[in-house]
Every structure is written in C-alpha cells, then in structure tokens.
Amino acid sequence: MKKFILGFNYWPRISNIKMWSRFEIEEIKRDFELMSELGINTIRAFVLNEDCADQLGNLKHDCKDKIGRFLEEAERHSIKVLLTLIVGHMSGKNWNIPWDSDNTIYDKVEQTKRFVGDIANSFKQSNAIMGWILTNEISLVRVPQNDDVFLGWLKELYSYIKGIDDQHVVSVGDNVSPFSHNFLRPENVKGIVDYASPHIYLYDQDPVRHSFQYFMTLEYDKSSGLPVILEEFGFPTSLYSEESHAKFIGLILRGALVYGADGALIWCFSDFPREGDEPYLWEPHELTFGVIRQDGSEKIAAKVVNDFSSKIKDIELSSYKVPKRDSAILVPSWFYRNFQFVYEQNKRWDFARVLNQAFTFARLSNIQVTFAREEDENLSSYKLLIIPSVTRLLTTTWRKLLKVVENGSTIYFSTYTLTHLSATHLWEELFGVIPNNYAGSKGVKVPERIRLNNNILELGQSNLYTYSFKEKDAKVIGVDDNNNGVIFIAKRGKGNAILSTIPLELISSNNETMDKRHFSLYDHIGRVANIGQSFPKQDFGVEIQYLEGKGESLIAVLNHTWEDKEYELNVKVKEDMDSCQGVVRAKSGCLMRV
C-alpha cells in the first residue's frame, strides 16, 4: 500500500547533533516509542561526518555499528529512515567534513564516494531504509562556482549510489524549489534525483499569500515531472505561539496531501535542552522547532500530527490522482536556464514571489492551475495560460502562443518595460495593439489606479514604467484615470489574447498585504477562458483542493486566514473526516470524502 509519508527530521532530544559521539540507544528507543504513539511512519536522520568518517572518507567502525543499531531500532518501531549522508551544514554551523578540510566539496568526489558508498553497501538491505539523501543543504557549505559544477557533482554521486542500490530513492537533501539557487530548481535536477525536496521556511505579512507559497512550491515542483516530498518545514515556538505553530503544521499537512505530495517531514521532532551546545549557543531559535518540548512533553503540534495521522492511516494514495489542471502559469526559460546579458536572471527570487502571487490569485478565483515551461509541447492542452509580470520570453515562444490561441486557448500576459527591451515583436499580430511610446522614453508611468469593468483597482504609487498602446483590432477592457487603455483583449482564431500593461502580480507581491479586489482580474480572465469549477468558489482566503478517486474525491477545504470561515459544497459528503460541519477553523483544513 502506498501511504502518505509523515514524519520528522530527527536528532535525539538530549544528544542532539552529537548523537553519534553521545550515542544512547535507550534515548533513541524512547524517542521512537513516542513517534509511534504520534502515528508517524518516517524520519529523516543524519550522519554527522566529523563523528563518523576519517580523513580518507572511510566510515568509522564504531559509527557503522551505531548506524546498524539505530536502523534496527527504527525497524522495530515500524519507522522508515531517509538517511542523510553528507552533513557539512546543520542548523547554523558548517561542521567539519574530515576528507575535505577546506570545504571545497565539489572536487572531492572520490573521497565522498568512498564514504557514501560504504554506508549504502552496508545498509541497503536494512528493512528500515526508505532511501538515501546525499546532503543536508550542501549549498550552505559552499556555493558552487557555477551551475554545471554542481549538477555534474550531483549526477556523479547519484549514479554512483544507484549503481550500488537501485531499490531505494536518492535525493539531494537541499531546497529543490522555485525559491532556491538556480542549480537546485527542479527543471535542472530532474533525472539526477528521484524526488524534489523543498526545504521551505517562508515569511509573508499576508497570511493568505504566506501559506499559498507552500502549496505553490509543491505544485511547481510536481509540474516539472518529479515526485515531491516536503522535506523540511516548520517554525520555532520561541518566536511564534504554540497554537499558531500547530495550526500552521496542520494546514500544511492537509494541503500537501491534496496537492499530491508523497509526504511531508516537519523540522523537527523535538526541542533541545543543551543550550550551550553549538550551534544553539548562537542560534537560540534552533532550540525550539520541535513538536516535543525540552522536557519531553508534547506541544499542541504533536496532537495535531497525531490527529492527522489517525485521519489518513487508511488512505491508499494509489487510489487517488491529482486532477488534470486546465490552466497553467507559464514559466520563462530564464528563470531556470542561463542566457547572456539577461538582466531578469538577477531577480529570480523576486520573480518566484510573482509566480506565487499569480498562483494565489488563480486559486482564490477557483482556477485549477499548475505551471508550464516554454519548451513544453502540450501548451494547447490548457484552456488558460497565465504569463504574469514578465518582461521577456524566448522570441520563438510568441509564435507558439499565437497558435495556442488560434487553437482555442486564452492567454493572459501582464508586462512592464525595461529600457530598450520589447517583450515581444508580435504586439499587433497576437494582441491587436500598436506601440505608442516616444522613441527613447522609458514608457509611461504605471497609474495609481485602473478601472476594469465596474471595478476600481487601487495600485498605489510605484516606480515602474509600462507600455503605451493604440488598439488596432483589440477591445479595451481596462483603463486608467485618463481613459487610456491599459488592458486589452483580442480574438484570434478560436481563442483570446489578453494583454495587461499593468504588472499586477509584481505590484501586489511587493505590497505588505493583498488587496482583495486585485484578483477580480483573474475572475474575469477565468470567465473569458470558460474555466470549469468542480466545487464552488469560497469566501476570501478559503480554497478547495482535491484528489480524484474512483467514484469519489478526497478534498480539503483549506482556510489560509486567521479567522474561522464558513464553507459551502455542492456535493454530498460521504465522510467528514475532521468533523467540520460547514465551518473551517482559522488557519486549518477540513478533510473529507465526497
């Protein structure tokens, strides 16, 4: 049976990072007993290299024995282990790698192979092993000289371990996500990892946009074709209340399930009482990420984990699938590929936030949306393509998009100007407009407000410039205060091309909180594209996401706000697993079969 992977990143509560040099099997046994009571099935554990390797990269005999005993205990408690092999960074400190004293990392392949190969050969037959995680955030030990150096290193180690053990998954153990170094984006590691492994600790003053970042990351990674395990997420209770910490974990777990992730691992199992140990000596927040307190008692989050485990224990994941998304956000190639003299590549983190803003607007408008790339062959399979606040695509992409529209899809493109750069050469052919900028100007200033149909969208002041257009055969659907067209729609073949000279997603992503009226534009383009909706649109901040099964769906009503919300369904509920009865509590989710 395929079960949702539910668990923790694990260091023992008392021994913490030095578990191998302070090895206490009775402490580990007590921790595993508590984990079993909480209903988790998986842990991510770590081999601290400075305690387990010599200067040649050999696995020390005493550490090998301890790893064996550790895995035996995990098996006795029915806990699977994702074992992390290269631990140069952990919790705010770069630890010694004995065979690599200068931390150059990527040129020490043979020594690294010796160490990881010894572990894989020794324990590949263990029933406790779920897979091998190559590193813990190796990019924090050293950023590679370039993307190719990292990807070549990863490919060699991946292939080496797969040659030893092709029965277990292998992943990188770093943040594979849109919020990462370029060399860790899923498009670039696909084929040299077995699953995408986001490590995400994200912040946003807007609570709705904040939690959408997690689900956007899962959707983004899955859209690359990789399975996804949310490998690290969490917050310290020395900074946030235990109640809000617990609610956040419960929401993310339910969302991860219905967004099609294979599992989620919370950082971390327990708080740590040794305040003087490194790195806690200078990183006090690292003491309090656990769902178990320093004294071994349970935080509220532990009960949330146990409750979630009890709800999903009988769910056979292979009986469900992610429904086909009829809409996609188009990701420009420069977001994950390198081109010469492309300024936007310096702003990839900012653009990840733009992608999340577009994703949030789409989901709040009840649009089932995923992500597509320029080189994808199936762009015409989407009823709606969203291209948010983009200043350039590949020149050849625009002709492809014209054909997509002519075949019956709708595209929505929002943009702004960069000096001496035209986003496309097909303004008239695709969008039915003609440039009206004065030669040598930056364009026109983005207005402080616009009118779309009968809605006034307040944009506020910005330093952005955008295009001025005259409509050729396009229809104006949005205007500024001077009644100049700023949003246009053109019929092309069987479909529609919508052009917005207002980079709404960029503007909104830079605002501390979202304006509820802004996603009315997405409501409009959803209607133009005739987007179908399996479940009714809910109150602001509430979404319904689901998995399809035979004759039923597994759905979650997800409340991204800090207020209780009522919800309505248009289907019969077979099982209200969280007993919500029409009300989804603040920052939480309701699972049900319908």
UniProtKB/TrEMBL annotation:
<dbReference type="InterPro" id="IPR027849">
    <property type="entry name" value="DUF4434"/>
</dbReference>
<feature type="domain" description="DUF4434">
    <location>
        <begin position="29"/>
        <end position="176"/>
    </location>
</feature>
<dbReference type="Pfam" id="PF14488">
    <property type="entry name" value="DUF4434"/>
</dbReference>
<dbReference type="GO" id="GO:0005576">
    <property type="term" value="C:extracellular region"/>
</dbReference>
<protein>
    <recommendedName>
        <fullName>DUF4434 domain-containing protein</fullName>
    </recommendedName>
</protein>
<dbReference type="InterPro" id="IPR045053">
    <property type="entry name" value="MAN-like"/>
</dbReference>
<dbReference type="GO" id="GO:0016985">
    <property type="term" value="F:mannan endo-1,4-beta-mannosidase activity"/>
</dbReference>
